[in-house]
Write a structure and sequence with these properties.
Length: about 325
């Protein structure tokens, strides 16, 4: 299915939005895109480089986003924090699919309520997961090796120099201010933990152990409900990545540990790292691009009106293929880790 109207990318000149636009262009050469940013000249340069794209500035304080009345879009992507939810309202008023990545678990209530009140208006993809759902989809791809899953532990290392641009850093500061507690699923119960219970050791792909803690992230309920696992935890550490320790750029690394049983009922556990030499930016962009594909029906049927999460729309096997295509890799843990 090809679109005659453009995908409006709010924050399209930022790292996540710009890279997502580049991926969409690579996958769908004729898909119209509208790059929205505060700096119109920069947006125009990006649009010209992409081709089949236009540039605009928007005002997120306005319900009409400051766009002309005759502007037409096929979807709205908030690749930045839509703090007044005017991007969502704009999409709902026009029956357009909407995708957001910056609300976080502790901030999604206004977004979910607004979406639920107008559930028939348009599909809303809440993708405020780690790297816009890329980690969840990778974990679900690995989970297909098990017949029953009892425990999922995700351990992520974010390089201190790889927190993104100003919008990404603002997101991290906002989330840390909202709560220092972590959300886990323990024996089937979603539980808030803090203090020593939230502390964790996160082992990097090269065996280095970093101090970390459990965090409140949408990946936990997404993985719990998608797999039925009664025990789910997401631990997070900010520090020096394995890439920088060996003198290379900051790298991305997420460890996926699964415990459960094989089809015969015998205990089975797996561990692997999802890594990328260029840090978190390519994976966040991929998460956005995968979501846009499904919202618009560029791959499979277009999403129906209502609230969606990445794992509800995107096939994990396909997501893994795309991860490998952009330079990510799955590697086994070191023996001593």
């Amino acid at each position: 299915m090809e679109q005659s109207q453009s995908v409006l990318i709010l924050g399209g000149t930022g790292q996540a939005g710009g890279d997502a636009a580049a991926l969409l262009r690579r996958w769908h050469p004729t898909l119209p895109l509208t790059i929205a940013g505060r700096d119109l000249d920069r947006a125009r340069r990006m649009a010209d480089a992409l081709g089949a794209a236009t540039a605009v500035t928007v005002d997120l304080r306005r319900g009409d986003l400051g766009l002309p009345g005759d502007h037409r879009s096929s979807a709205v992507v908030a690749a930045l924090w839509d703090d007044r939810l005017n991007g969502l309202r704009y999409a709902q008023d026009r029956g357009l699919p909407y995708l957001s990545i910056s609300s976080g678990l502790v901030e999604i209530a206004p977004e979910v309520v607004a979406s639920a009140q107008r559930a028939d208006a348009a599909p809303v993809l809440v993708a405020s997961h780690y790297c816009a759902g890329a980690a969840v989809l990778a974990a679900l791809g690995a989970a297909r090796e098990l017949d029953r899953i009892d425990t999922i532990r995700i351990s992520a290392v974010l390089d201190a120099s790889d927190t993104g641009g100003p919008a990404g850093r603002a997101d991290l500061e906002r989330w840390s201010t909202a709560t220092s507690a972590g959300l886990v699923r323990r024996d089937g119960v979603f539980t808030w933990i803090d203090g020593s219970a939230a502390q964790a050791e996160v082992t990097s792909v090269d065996g280095t152990v970093l101090p970390g803690q459990s965090i409140a992230v949408l990946d936990v309920p997404s993985l719990a409900h998608a797999t039925g696992a009664p025990n789910v935890r997401f631990d997070f550490a900010v520090g020096e990545s394995a890439g920088r320790r060996r003198g290379a750029p900051a790298s991305f690394e997420v460890r996926i540990d699964l415990e459960g049983a094989d089809p015969a009922g015998a205990p089975l556990s797996t561990s692997r790292y999802l890594v990328h030499p260029a840090g978190q930016r390519p994976l966040t962009a991929l998460g956005i691009a995968l979501g846009v594909e499904r919202l618009l029906g560029l791959r499979g049927e277009a999403a129906r009106p209502g609230i969606h999460t990445p794992e509800a729309l995107v096939d994990p096997t396909y997501a893994v293929e795309r991860l490998l295509e952009i330079g990510a890799a799955f590697v086994n843990p070191r023996v001593n880790s």
